[in-house]
Amino acid sequence: MADIREQIKRKYGVDIETLNLFFLYKISGPDVTDQELEQAFAKKRKSWSQFLNSPREDKAAQARQHLEAADRYEAVLRDPSLRKALYAYYQKSGDGTGDASLDFAREFFGIVGKTRRIRRQEIDFFFEYFPEQRKSRQSILEMLKTEFKVSKLDARGADGGEDERDEKKKKSALVADQFDRSTLLGIRKCQAYLTKAAAIGTTAVQFPGVSESLYRFLDLENCRDIESLRTLVKAGREKASGLRLDGGQEYTPVLDLYNKLDELLDQNDVFYNFKEFKLLVKFPNLTPYMYEIVEARERTIADLARVAQREYGFRDQYDFLFSYFLTMYSKFGIYDNGIRKMMKDAERKQGRQKFLDKVDRILGREKTEPLPPCFTPLFFLAYLPVYLTFGVFELVKLIVWNLRYIAIPAAVPAALWLARATFGFVGYELPSWSRFSLRELTARLCAGMGMPAALEMAVTLFFIAAVIALPVILGVCCLWDSATKLRKEFDWKGIERTFWMILNQFKRQFKNRLERRRIFTLTRMLLAVLINAVLFTGVFLYARDLSGNLSWKLRQILWE
């Protein structure tokens, strides 16, 4: 394996250890036709030519470098025997690196697979977040097929590079509580820029600490808020830009780093969760696990703590729980039902007040002075529509968050209702044996019911399974998957934080108005209470009549 690497490097000047030509040109295997090969070459040359005019200097430089070496890349792949040897090299990843990649992927998907079904999206994110694993992609996919029984996989897919989509989170009026995928990949890209800058020795003179981690380079330990980091990034960006304009090409990675950081700091999830953002930068190797995990159980915490101890030197499981997990799990939409007992133990260990303060910070509840007791009911009644809207949202959230656990018990009443509705709709008359008690049915079976009765029973059971059992099972599976997707991909906590922020703002305005114009403010609030009372009385009466009519029609449709 080392011979083929040295042979290609000596003859063509291409290091196949750091560059996977099959993934670069998106070639699925060594047995491609000459026509397919030429089409892949032309497509990639066209893509590189387009990126020459990219506003991103790193993209343009990378495309220029690939175009200059394109003839050598193509010469390697045009040789059939060399192409087969190269494919075998990539599958084994040479010099033992393949085994390390497989072990890492096996551990990662082993932890993630205990909490969810591994799909193509999870695998693509793995290769996006860990680009160094792409050279072993084929071996990892084969491992996933054989050991994890993941189907519908091939060597193609999101391999980053020039064709990577730039996923930017749109600005929103809502407070963001969960971290977006683009933010996580953006932090990883910043780390890559810093690594590239550290490899250039001269950059350390102008930017001390470039060889340190991103957390230390940005001195995030001493950044108390996002504005202080903005100031630091702005100063570094201006300095790197000036050096770059003076002909310092070696400062391009540093400039790209500051440009990417400036872009990240404009995103809502970073702005509203700056303390948690600092933890993302400090412990980046834990991020992909948190992003992929759906439901945390005690064994999940144990597995994550083992990774955290190995990567970052956490003392034990509780140190990991206190210092990282309790703060971060809600930012990734992770179910906590399986670790409630562990969280209660953590609450006792840390102290109740400290734990509740942490929860308040996670939910974004500001510590504001309460309203005077005599005005609290008035404020509640005046802003009753806001409270009711949030109450409906909380009810929907409660249902969705527990839909995974409701789905299976709900299968029993659903099956009973479906049976009655189906048999009533088709006019099917159940056989006499189905109305017996279990004891009577057992006695008849023991006495021998004869072949016609046994055949009738078999046909009926098959009909029940086909018409009732299969739809119920499919419905439960769909509910389970939908609930998981809604929990992970919808920012429920962000809406809660938005509500608390709006409510606290209303309270502050109410207190300020009371201090300035008490009589006028109370008059306005009483008028709002009166209007709310009239509106809700009308809505209640209309809803009562409507529900009575609907229930009568539903009974007719379902049971008659």
What is this structure's SSE topology?
Layout: H1 2-12, H2 21-24, H3 34-51, H4 57-78, H5 80-92, H6 97-113, H7 120-129, H8 137-147, H9 181-198, H10 203-206, H11 214-217, H12 226-245, H13 252-264, H14 268-272, H15 274-282, H16 287-292, E1 295-297, H17 298-312, H18 317-328, E2 335-338, H19 340-350, H20 352-363, H21 376-382, H22 384-401, H23 403-407, H24 411-426, H25 438-447, H26 451-489, H27 492-516, H28 518-559
Parallel strand pairs: 1-2
Short note summarizing the structure:
The protein has helices at residues 2-12, 21-24, 34-51, 57-78, 80-92, 97-113, 120-129, 137-147, 181-198, 203-206, 214-217, 226-245, 252-264, 268-272, 274-282, 287-292, 298-312, 317-328, 340-350, 352-363, 376-382, 384-401, 403-407, 411-426, 438-447, 451-489, 492-516, 518-559, and strands at residues 295-297, 335-338. The chain has 560 residues and is mostly helical.
